């Protein structure tokens, strides 16, 4: 993919903000300070290749975000075009013709999702929550309680969105908002926020690559992974609209130092970004749940070739660390950005498949029945052993 070396730096700049609160943890602590090094095939039982099938003349440009929701994949590329696919990668629709200033169109896309309850696509813009059917036909628009900046006073805009019902949505303010470390429960029928839930208490520093923060487990428990480096991971009660710490990970002295990160609070943005780019200790940037396991993407400095994947079994305490690049060059595991009930997902260009698939025995590679476009993108789904 394009600009891999600078991707992490851009995300740090876009999401940066700091938290100064330092309160005691109020949840069980799991020691993950001594991971055993492993290869992808030692942790995952198989890998499935799911190619995106595009209509002739339509191409995605550098896939940035993938969500797996219900029976759909919804994707955004670097041009802020949103695509909807079935879970076998077959194209359904895209938003390109909905960009503009006309009725039902948008110019600034802040967030997107697929609502499995209403079977509609939802986009957040600076002013509105837009609804479309699965073919991107416009349905309706609901004003958001956004607040534009005034003088030195920061505004508030909403980006990420997660749905609890056809009309109840969890919104997260952008990192540049005045109060970014909170969840807002928005009722789109009433057009108002009915509750705000802060998560500042255990936040260490707001730098993250957590593109999806809410996951509903098979037992009905909803997990909340804050978009920051946090002392705790949470559960979210969908009835009382409240969060509670359920697990804290102790990374030990070899990983990030919470006090070192907190010391950056209050410093100017350029100083903090430079500090983070040069910070060599591991920082957890993405958490994905899969059964009893947590898959955590960890950065070590600003280069993506130094990233690693930490796999933690929260029941047994066993934990493994996979180097995503061999000798800093050959990719053996992609950035895993999303989880679904039976696997964790990463998106790669088709031309990158060879080095990734050769990590597994041929019998453990599930290939598609249809051809793969050599210039296209594919999803790799990894299943746990």
Topology:
Blueprint: H1 4-15, E1 17-18, E2 29-31, E3 36-38, H2 40-43, E4 44-51, E5 63-69, E6 72-77, E7 82-86, E8 91-94, E9 111-115, E10 120-124, E11 128-132, E12 138-143, E13 158-163, E14 168-173, E15 182-187, E16 192-198, E17 203-206, E18 214-216, E19 222-224, E20 229-230, E21 233-237, E22 242-250, H3 258-262, H4 269-278, E23 283-290, E24 293-299, E25 308-313, E26 319-323, E27 325-326, E28 330-331, E29 338-340, E30 343-349, H5 353-357, E31 365-366, E32 377-384
Parallel strand pairs: 2-22, 3-26, 4-31
Antiparallel strand pairs: 1-17, 4-32, 5-6, 6-7, 7-8, 9-10, 10-11, 11-12, 13-14, 14-15, 15-16, 17-20, 18-19, 19-21, 21-22, 23-24, 24-25, 25-26, 27-28, 29-30, 30-32
How would you explain this protein's 3D organization?
The protein has 385 residues and is mainly β. The chain has one domain: Neuraminidase. It is 9% helix and 42% strand. The protein has five helices and 32 strands. The chain has helices at residues 4-15, 40-43, 258-262, 269-278, 353-357; strands at residues 17-18, 29-31, 36-38, 44-51, 63-69, 72-77, 82-86, 91-94, 111-115, 120-124, 128-132, 138-143, 158-163, 168-173, 182-187, 192-198, 203-206, 214-216, 222-224, 229-230, 233-237, 242-250, 283-290, 293-299, 308-313, 319-323, 325-326, 330-331, 338-340, 343-349, 365-366, 377-384. The strands form eight sheets. It has a five-stranded mixed sheet with strand order 2-22-21-19-18, with no helix packed on it. Strands 3-26-25-24-23 form a five-stranded mixed sheet. The protein has a five-stranded mixed sheet with strand order 29-30-32-4-31. The longest helix has 12 residues, at 4-15.
């Amino acid at each position: 993919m394009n600009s891999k070396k600078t991707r992490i730096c851009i995300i740090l700049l876009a999401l940066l903000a700091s938290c100064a609160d330092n309160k005691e943890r109020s949840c069980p602590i799991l020691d993950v300070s001594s991971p055993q090094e492993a290869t992808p095939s030692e942790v995952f039982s198989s890998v499935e290749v799911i190619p995106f099938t595009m209509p002739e003349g339509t191409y995605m440009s550098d896939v940035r975000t993938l969500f797996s929701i219900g029976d759909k994949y919804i994707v955004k590329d670097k041009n802020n075009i949103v695509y909807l696919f079935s879970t076998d990668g077959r194209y359904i629709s895209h938003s390109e013709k909905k960009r503009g200033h006309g009725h039902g169109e948008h110019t600034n896309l802040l967030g997107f999702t697929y609502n499995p309850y209403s079977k509609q696509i939802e986009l957040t813009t600076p002013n509105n929550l837009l609804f479309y059917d699965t073919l991107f036909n416009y349905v309706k628009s609901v004003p958001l309680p956004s607040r534009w900046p005034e003088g030195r006073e920061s505004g508030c805009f909403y980006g990420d969105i997660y749905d609890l019902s056809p009309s109840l949505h969890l919104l997260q303010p952008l990192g540049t908002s005045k109060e970014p470390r909170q969840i807002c429960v928005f009722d789109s029928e009433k057009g108002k926020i009915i509750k705000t839930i802060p998560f500042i208490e255990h936040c260490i520093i707001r730098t993250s690559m957590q593109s999806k923060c809410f996951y509903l487990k098979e037992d009905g428990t909803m997990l909340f992974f804050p978009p920051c480096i946090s002392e705790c991971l949470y559960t979210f009660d969908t009835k009382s609209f409240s969060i509670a710490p359920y697990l804290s990970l102790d990374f030990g002295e070899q990983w990030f130092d919470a006090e070192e990160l907190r010391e950056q609070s209050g410093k100017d943005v350029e100083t903090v970004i430079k500090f983070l780019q040069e910070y060599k200790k591991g920082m957890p940037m993405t958490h994905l749940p899969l059964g009893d396991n947590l898959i955590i993407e960890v950065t070590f400095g600003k280069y993506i070739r130094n990233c690693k994947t930490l796999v933690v079994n929260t029941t047994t305490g066993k934990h493994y660390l996979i180097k995503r690049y061999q000798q800093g060059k050959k990719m053996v595991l992609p950035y895993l950005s999303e989880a679904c009930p039976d696997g964790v997902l990463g998106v790669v260009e088709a031309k990158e498949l060879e080095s990734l698939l050769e990590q597994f025995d041929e019998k453990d590679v599930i290939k598609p029945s249809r051809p793969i476009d050599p210039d296209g993108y594919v999803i790799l789904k990894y299943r746990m052993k």
